[in-house]
């Protein structure tokens, strides 16, 4: 591979890093893979460009437009993935490891694109929850909304996943409408730069939406304000230093951290040797030790087993680890590649020596490993190292020291309570896993350990085949953990987007709040004039467009007919005496589904038109019984709209059914698909 010269991307220009060039070594050969200048960039210009150009451009787009952009970026990564796979082995990673990084990264963007399209509005304001009635007459209401922060997100990324680590942060940031300045870890910056280049070359990103810093961050932190977010992944010591930066503190800049994590995996007390869960546990511990040569923030560092199974577990792990071939990750037969650098290997060795003061190395040798592949003989390879600590309650280092390599410590526990307490001694982790086939054990463990772990993966014979495993953070689930893990939270679907937005409590009249949020609130004006709302195409239908129907009486015959027709002859509809004995009913009452059906009969405009399909109901409540002789009428109001594609969009209707006394008997939201 020729030596790459890396560039930063500042105010939409690729720029050299200036003097004081450093060499970045290949993890496999130890030879120079890339060079990067480390001279100061014009950080003032970067920040200005993000704030004044990138931010306004992104904020002018709707969530759906930003989602479409993310989809295009994800596609571009997939289309050009082989260029990234070509660089991947130099980081020490096998193709399988690279799949997590490269295609996992694209998959995360795809997921954000789809979440943005399906769960967020085609709008620039995001409503949070339901309106709150804060006045007696309902003329003064409360509503929470999210709008994008007006600063930038500074992404400081770790070396281990140069592509995924960048994209999992860019997805939610860009979807929120916030520009990003990305600072990849120097050790693998050549792969991050190559992926970043692909994003830029799509031409899909507005100017200023993303910028790239290769090398140090200079005075960037001194420029932070309360409108900015720092999203950090790396070591606890760097996180501590950066979150204590005077500017972060003075400006209350948001700081999200993923840092060290002594993740635990627990073999359930029910999972005796020979059970599927025992085998799955062994497989998972070995996989987590060796994928990415253990350089995964979610890797299993502590493996707990019932004390009576300690020997069998150790034997099974050692046998399985013995089959791992270490070597040139470009070779297919290599199951495990290299650590990212010789410095990282020294760090891992130091950490293992610290662990070995209170645990025995029962598999692997710190100094020796058989390496396959000729060009790899001088690379940063290390053997998988399994330690066993017989007294995890007296030991300290095993719960504190993160050896960021293929290293795990096996430990015994007495009972489930003990296992949870030991898992919690990591003082906060990104993930813990439990291998059990017993839901009672799972529940007890979750109650005892949940507070200490950002994610709990419970794996058994039923889920194993489809399980995404202990170590995979997923875009739809939160990634982050309390305490030692950094106290941050990333991804989690739409939750992750909100980290880059401000939640504001709005107060005002229903008409004002409807206008601000583009979502009709009861009490706001309606337009009940013809035509019927079902005659209007998606584009012509305005929020607040309403039909108020004439009343319809519900007779005992109607109720009996409905009961026999549908087969729903529940006593509350059929048996006067039994119904009277029920505290909710004055006597026989109409079926809830009858009310819904009659409501539809009242508001529907039957002729073919723009309404294509009934898509479902949300938030249905039956609030008062309807007795024979009562009459009902309906108000149906267009509440909000979400375009799906060029052909149709989803309309959400606010529906209220009232009786002859004006009491509300049912409320719900009806969803229809309407032609554009
Ligand atoms: P670091 O904390 O040193 O680096 C993480 C990121 O922070 C890199 O982009 C680094 O840039 C940047 N950085 C470092 N110092 C500063 C600073 N003063 N100002 C601004 N940015 C800074 O972690 P490493 O990646 O070197 O990994 C070291 C250890 O961290 C690992 O051995 C492991 O224990 C842990 N780690 C934990 C992870 C987790 O999520 N649990 C993930 C990755 C690592 P640069 O590369 O240019 O120095």
From TrEMBL:
Ranges of compositional bias, category Gly residues: 480-489
GO MF annotations in UniProt: hydrolase activity; oxidoreductase activity, acting on the aldehyde or oxo group of donors, NAD or NADP as acceptor
Alphabetical UniProt keywords: Hydrolase, Oxidoreductase
Segments forming domain Aldehyde dehydrogenase: 14-502
Matches recorded under InterPro entries: Ald_DH/histidinol_DH, Ald_DH_C, Ald_DH_N, Aldehyde_DH_dom, HotDog_dom_sf, MaoC-like_dom, PaaN-DH
Sequence ranges assigned to domain MaoC-like in this UniProt record: 542-651
Top-level division of the source organism's lineage: Bacteria
Pfam families tied to this protein: Aldedh, MaoC_dehydratas
Region Disordered: start-end pairs: 466-489
Keyword DNA-binding: no
Name listed for the protein in its UniProt record: Oxepin-CoA hydrolase / 3-oxo-5,6-dehydrosuberyl-CoA semialdehyde dehydrogenase
Species lineage: Bacteria, Pseudomonadati, Pseudomonadota, Alphaproteobacteria, Parvularculales
């Amino acid at each position: 591979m020729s030596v790459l010269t890396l560039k930063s991307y500042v105010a939409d220009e690729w720029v050299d890093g200036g003097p004081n060039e450093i060499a970045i070594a290949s993890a496999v050969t130890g030879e120079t893979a890339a060079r990067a200048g480390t001279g100061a960039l014009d950080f003032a210009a970067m920040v200005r460009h993000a704030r004044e150009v990138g931010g306004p451009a992104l904020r002018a787009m709707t969530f759906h437009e930003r989602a479409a952009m993310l989809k295009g970026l994800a596609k571009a990564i997939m289309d050009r993935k082989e260029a990234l796979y070509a660089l991947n082995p130099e980081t020490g990673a096998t193709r399988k490891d690279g799949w997590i990084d490269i295609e996992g990264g694209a998959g995360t963007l795809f997921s954000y694109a789809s979440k943005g399209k399906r769960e967020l509005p085609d709008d620039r304001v995001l409503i949070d929850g339901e309106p709150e009635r804060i006045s007696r007459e309902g003329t003064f209401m409360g509503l929470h909304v999210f709008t994008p922060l007006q600063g930038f997100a500074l992404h400081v990324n770790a070396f281990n996943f140069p592509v995924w680590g960048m994209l999992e942060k860019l997805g939610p940031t860009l979807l929120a409408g916030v520009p990003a300045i990305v600072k990849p870890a120097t050790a693998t910056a050549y792969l991050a730069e190559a992926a970043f280049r692909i994003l830029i070359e799509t031409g899909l990103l507005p100017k200023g939406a993303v910028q790239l810093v290769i090398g140090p961050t200079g005075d960037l932190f001194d420029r932070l304000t309360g409108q900015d977010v720092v999203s950090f992944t790396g070591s606890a010591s760097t996180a501590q230093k950066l979150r204590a930066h005077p500017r972060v503190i003075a400006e209350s800049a948001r700081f999200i951290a993923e840092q060290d994590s002594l993740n635990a995996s627990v073999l359930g007390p029910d999972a005796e040797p020979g059970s599927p869960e025992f085998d799955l546990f062994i497989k998972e511990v070995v996989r987590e030790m060796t994928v990415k040569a253990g350089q995964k923030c979610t890797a299993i560092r502590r493996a707990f087993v019932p004390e009576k199974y300690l020997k069998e577990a150790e034997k099974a792990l050692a046998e399985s680890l013995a089959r791992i071939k270490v070597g040139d990750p470009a070779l297919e037969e290599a199951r495990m590649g290299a650590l990212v650098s010789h410095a990282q290997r020294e760090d891992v060795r130091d950490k293992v020596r610290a662990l070995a003061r209170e645990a025995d190395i029962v598999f692997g040798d710190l100094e020796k490993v058989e390496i396959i592949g000729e060009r790899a003989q001088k690379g940063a390879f290390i053997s998988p190292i399994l330690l066993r600590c017989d007294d995890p309650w007296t030991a300290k280092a095993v719960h504190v020291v993160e050896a960021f390599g293929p290293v795990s410590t096996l430990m015994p526990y007495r009972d489930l309570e003990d296992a949870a307490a030991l898992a919690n001694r990591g003082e906060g982790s990104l993930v813990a896993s439990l291998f059990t086939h017993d839901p009672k054990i799972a529940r007890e463990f979750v109650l005892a350990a949940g507070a200490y772990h950002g994610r709990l993966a419970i794996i058994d014979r039923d889920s194993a085949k489809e399980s995404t495993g202990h170590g995979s953070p997923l875009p739809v689930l939160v990634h982050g953990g309390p305490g030692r893990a950094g106290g941050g939270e990333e991804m989690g679907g739409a939750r992750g987007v909100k980290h880059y937005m401000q939640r504001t409590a709005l107060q005002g009249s229903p008409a004002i709040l409807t206008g601000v949020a583009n979502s009709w609130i009861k009490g706001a004006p309606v337009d009940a004039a013809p035509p019927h709302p079902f005659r209007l195409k998606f584009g012509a239908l305005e929020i607040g467009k309403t039909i108020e129907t004439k009343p319809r009486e519900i007779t005992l015959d109607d109720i009996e007919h409905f009961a026999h027709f549908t087969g729903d002859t529940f006593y509350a509809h059929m048996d006067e005496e039994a119904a009277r004995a029920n505290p909710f009913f004055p006597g026989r009452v109409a079926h809830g589904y009858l009310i819904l059906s009659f409501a539809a009969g009242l508001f529907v405009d039957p002729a073919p038109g723009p309404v294509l399909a009934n898509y479902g109901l949300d938030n249905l409540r039956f609030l008062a019984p309807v007795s024979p002789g009562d009459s009902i009428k309906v108000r149906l109001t267009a509440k909000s709209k979400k375009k799906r594609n060029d052909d149709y969009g989803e309309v959400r209707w606010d529906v209220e059914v009232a009786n002859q006394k004006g009491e509300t008997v049912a409320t719900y939201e009806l969803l229809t698909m309407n032609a554009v």
